[in-house]
Specification:
By secondary structure, the chain is of the alpha/beta class. About 40% of the residues lie in helices and about 15% in strands. It has one domain: Rossmann fold. It is built from eleven helices and seven strands.
Length: about 260
């Protein structure tokens, strides 16, 4: 499995979303670096980036592959984990399966309900439209326009640098297989119903029409040490839309993880 490592210290595993790769989460790296001594492991999930799909054909297979990679690289060393979108569903599962080893859990625009038709999501809205900015993205214009709440030159550049390359590199055949078996056998909070007491963070976005925010908040009582946030003026790529605020929330989470440890 392809993993980009940065820094030294306590391991922090970062899992990107569906159809992206590790580059989607690199905008968080500055905030993590400022938080202290963290060994960041940016993972390319199977069928994404530079990680071959192999025999992976379901979300359960992705969980197994990530779990095996963590075991190989970290053994029984304590670590924290952060997941974005689809990667958040994987992160929640890993965190519950490895409760005694996981120091903290964070999700950014995380999937909490696998089937889109069963999610509670807001209507699509664009707060700032700029046709010239969208057109300037060329072949990536449609993908950007579907996600961007604020269509600005800076936001478009962030999309071009961090989201577009992963979409281009994704194995679409593998994604199709996983999409057919996208749902976990059981949601982590139901399979392991005892409250998850490690410091946690759940970042959601008010204008996220992909996963919404209400489904994450329905799990509030399961996470007694969690910060839950709904950020206005942000969509599914909330960390690209509101980078300083998301960075501050991630920094606060990591400081809480260190204090709890």
């Amino acid at each position: 499995m392809h993993v980009v490592e940065r820094g030294a210290g306590t391991p922090l595993v970062l899992l990107h979303g569906f159809g992206a790769d590790h580059r989607l989460l690199l905008p968080l790296d500055g905030a993590i670096e400022r938080a202290g001594q963290w060994r960041r492991l940016y993972v390319d999930l199977p069928g994404h980036g530079q990680t071959p799909a192999g025999g992976v054909a379901s979300t359960e297979d992705v969980v197994a592959a990530v779990d095996a990679e963590i075991a190989r690289r970290l053994g029984d060393e304590p670590f924290a984990i952060l997941g974005n979108s689809f990667g958040a569903m994987i992160a929640r599962r890993i965190a519950h399966d490895r409760r005694d080893q996981v120091l903290g859990l964070a999700t950014v625009a995380g999937v909490f309900i696998a089937e889109h038709d069963h999610r509670t999501v807001p209507e699509r809205v664009v707060l700032v439209e700029d046709a010239a900015v969208v057109a300037g993205l060329g072949d990536a214009a449609e993908a950007y326009a579907e996600m961007a709440v604020f269509q600005t030159a800076e936001n478009a550049q962030a999309f071009r640098e961090h989201a577009e390359p992963g979409e281009a590199a994704a194995d679409h055949d593998a994604m199709g297989r996983i999409a057919e078996r996208y749902e976990l056998a059981e949601m982590p909070e139901e399979a392991s119903p005892e409250p998850f007491v490690a410091p946690s963070l759940f970042v959601t976005a008010r204008q996220d029409q992909v996963v919404g925010y209400e489904d994450a908040w329905a799990r509030l009582e399961h996470y007694p040490r969690a910060t839950f946030s709904v950020l206005d003026a942000a969509g599914h790529n909330v960390h690209l839309d509101r980078p300083p605020l998301v960075g501050a929330l991630v920094t606060d989470w990591l400081e809480r993880v260190v204090a709890a440890r």
